[in-house]
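Recall that a protein's primary structure is simply its ordered list of amino acids. Everything else, from secondary elements to tertiary packing, is in principle encoded there. The following example makes that idea concrete.
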Amino acid sequence: MPDYKAPLREIKFVFNELLDCDRHYRSLNGCEELSPELFDAIVDSASKFAENVVAPLNRSGDEQGCHFDKGSVTTPLGFKEAFEQYAAGGWQGLSVPCEDGGQGLPGSCSALVNELIGSSNYAWSMIGGLAHAPISLLLAAGADEQKKTWLPKLLSGTWAGTMCLTEAHCGSDVGLVRTCATANADGSYNITGSKIFISGGEQDITENIIHTVLARVEGAPPGTKGISLFVVPKILLEKDGSLGQRNNVSCGSIENKMGLKGSPTCVLNFDGATGYLLGEENGGLEIMFNIMNTARMGTAQQGVSIGEASFQGALTYARERLQMRSLSGKKNPDGPADPIIVHPDVRRMLMTQKALNEGSRAFIYWLAFMVDQTKYGAEEEAKIADDLLSFLTPIAKAFCTETGFEVTNLGLQVFGGHGYIRENGMEQLVRDARIAMLYEGTTGIQSLDLLGRKVMGSGGKLLANFTKLVHKFCTANADNEAMAEFTVPLAALNKQWGDLTTQIGTSAMNNAEEVGAASVDYAMFSGYVTLAYLWAKMALIAQQKMVEQDEGAEFYKSKLTTARFYYARILPRTSAHAQAALGGADTMMALSEDEFAF
């Protein structure tokens, strides 16, 4: 398993230089006390915890996996102790308001911590990550008494949590949920039904688990209008808040999965379990939307996290592995062969990993800053940020998970046959990364949301909000000859984006299937252009820094070189995606179901 080292220079470049976090945090209401010194302390502490406590459990967690026996789940050795350290460090409540028992820091700080922990041990990160669902939902819709009852132990890490949506017959189509809720005289409800794919639904790490469950109250309207949200604890509480008897919630089994073997994915059976309504009856989905963007961004970041781990492993191996000689002459004349990093095809893979991962990291943290603005910014800035988030979040979730998986696959490929065997840890990263394209809505669902709801549904306004930013950047740098290699192709793609949207929209007027047929290619086109915008901004900073100072010149040279690689070698993918998006629905819908088989 590759040794993980937190990419602090990269992260601080994005936060400090690309996004100007000092100015950003000072502009937020209630976050002025987040000084550069405090920010650095958070980064350094989180990196040490990720490197020294969590990362060493990654390989062993995968080898041991989770074990199920008569309703109980045993997690890998060391997971419980590591989580106790995490909880004691106060990480669980980092971005929860102070008045609710947290530390009151902006969500972008938690996003940073999540990257480090996700890179070091994706499976372990699920323990604390899933607790954020009930925490966020209680903050959004919980009554004062509910917050008082459930939040303190969730924030302290004494209890964990889950989000229970999926049932065997329905995944993202939650309007088909059958789990039912029957009201009791005391205001509680009896919850009956089964949920599947519940991460952390049962475990031996915390003394209680707080499930947040979508269910349908008896007599509720059909479809999404009749969905309610409930808090269902694994163990009920006595009047004094102490743990009481076991609730009627049981784990029927855990899934035998491709990856994330250290994280138990459970079938949960609710047999008249006692639950407590959050918000109003039939208002469950409205409450859920409060955390949807954050959940999708968190999944997008998982693509970056595992991609970083894979890149680090591939880079180390490429520097050490000796094989063949460079075509341009010996680079390691005293050795039997040259290190494979000198070969162009290995460089192609490493540079692709580097360009996609660093660009996606900038993308994710930019979105995290927008979330900060929606919560703590002035009204006008908050509205602008909210509109951009609505448009960019499905792009990030689809694109960063797809390219994150590409990055991990390339890492394995750099190792050759040694990547395919377990002992080097690269194949685990591939297995672990694969789920991110499925979590929180598949790539297809995100793409349809982007093109159908966000772009077409807004009459193009949400798209225009972003393309105006790109246009403004290109115009501002039109006289900068050094930036022409970036701004000229970026401006052309920005215009093509609008033209492509118009063409798809025109076709959809005659056949609604055109939107679904074009959506994934449209989302990937959008992702590559979005990263091109961010790489152009990073290239501008690098150029300026290389002129202004000698210190760190190699870092900025690397940034500029990577930007050029992205534009020359990766950005041309947009042409294929644009052409495919206009390929028409008939090419995929013409066959009858029977004609698929012969």
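The chain is about 60% helix and 10% strand. Residues 355 and 566 are 6 Å apart (CA to CA).
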